[in-house]
Amino acid sequence: MSIRAIDEAPLTTFHRKLTVACAGGPFLDGYLLSIIGVALIGMSNELNLSAGDEGLIGAAALVGIFVGGLFGGVLTDRLGREAMYTIDLMVLVGVSVLSVFAGESWQFVVLRFVLGVAVGADYPIATSLLAEWVPNRHRGRLLGILILAWYVGAAAAYVVGYVMAEIGGAGAWRWMLASGAVLSAVVLLMRIGTPESPLWLVNKGRTADAQKSIERALGRTVPIDDLLAASAAEQSMAQHRFRDLFQGAYLRRTLFCGLFYMCQITPMFALYTFGPAILGSFGLGEGNASNLGSALISIVFVAGCIPALRLVDRVGRRPVIVWSFALMAIPLAVLGGGDSLPIAVVIVCFCAYALLSGGPTVLEWTYPNELFPTGIRATAGGVATSISRIGAAAGTLLLPISLSRLGIGTTMLIGAGITLLGWLVSLAWAEETRGRTLAETSAVPVGSRRPSAADEKRGADLRESDLERS
User: Mind listing the UniProt keywords for this protein, alphabetically (predicted)?
Assistant: First the structure.
């Protein structure tokens, strides 16, 4: 059952502020993960870092994101969205501050790992909180804005890194890391005071708290009977656990969310690496100017997300993701021509892929939040993130090997193949969730799962407890 006061509410100042605060996390993620790449140049010279040290520092964050996504969602479903929403940012602030004063390679490896854990955890935290607060008709667009913020953060990091390197030279790397600490503190202040998700409160049987949360955020008084009914509906269902993600209908949804995310992000990471070489033909591929080139790459990917934000709520999730994957494979297949292609064709194909990738990109966090119930919503988002990072890590590790041994043409054809796999996964498993309540989108097919006697007894006990407290 859903809460009509939320599902049918008009878009308010609260929703806009919450979207900005939630987007602060992905913005920081893009910023913090990108600024280290710029800072490493000065760090390597001053701290005499080896190539192995640089590789470990870069890989530590990816490993951390995998761990954070896997366990951050579980904690969010158990402890609540509001608590994890601020704890996560406190960790980011602390790690960013400590990074400014670190002086040994192992210290950076440890700090980048912890930062990655916080980054990976923030994905399911912020997205589940926003998904459970926004009206149905705006949910796809507002959740898509969060992933858009990641690219904006990455672009900002390269611009800030460029400016600081121009002003302070190689020794400015500590100021670059300090900028991340300042931005993290700003986002933390924005998040303080955010009310808890009413759906999570209802799921835990805390109907009175849910009523207060809605009154505080939306200025609406929801009859306690409506919330009791919603609580009864939640509690009468089987109580979902981590293992449920890998059983029955939820297994298919878990595979869908994780695989399409991985198939989207793996070639994208490859083009992020290949992009500066393309832009090098315009004189933006060497020295500090390469940071501006990297910023331009992020901006092109942002441009692709903007039309997709409108289409997911107007046309629907399924047609957007299916057609996007199908069209994304075309420019990658053309790039399979390799070095013999004219530079103009290469640039056009690169831009076409970046623009067309907006569809799957804005749905990376929408689908996991819509296809799973409240009890495991954040957990599902975290698992999808972790699966995607396997592809990101593999792409980052194997791309240089593929380029040297197979060549750029074959490497791009492999990317096209991965993209076609994403199309097949979407064609087979993508569901249409546009305009429906979270209760409707997360429901499994009738007869695929039934509550046990213990589940029904627990639901009855909780309903009785709700009535006593009310």
Answer: Membrane, Transmembrane, Transmembrane helix
* Helices 81-101 + 105-131 axis angle, to 10: 160
Tokens of 243: 């293992």
Instruction: Enumerate residues 6+ apart whose C-beta is below 8 A from 248.
Output: 444, 448, 449
- Of 254, 209, 224, 195, which Cα lies nearest the Cα of 373? 254
This prediction's pTM: 0.80
Condensed to tens digits (0 to 9), the pLDDT of residues 294-338 reads 777 778 888 888 899 889 989 999 999 999 999 999 999 998 887
Q: Tell me how far apart the alpha carbons of residues 157 and 162 are, in angstroms, rounded to a whole number.
A: 8
Per-residue burial over 265-286, b if 16 or more Cβ lie within 10 Å, else e, is bbbbbbbbebbbebbeeeebbe
Cα-based distances in Å from 228 to 211, 233, 383: 10, 9, 31
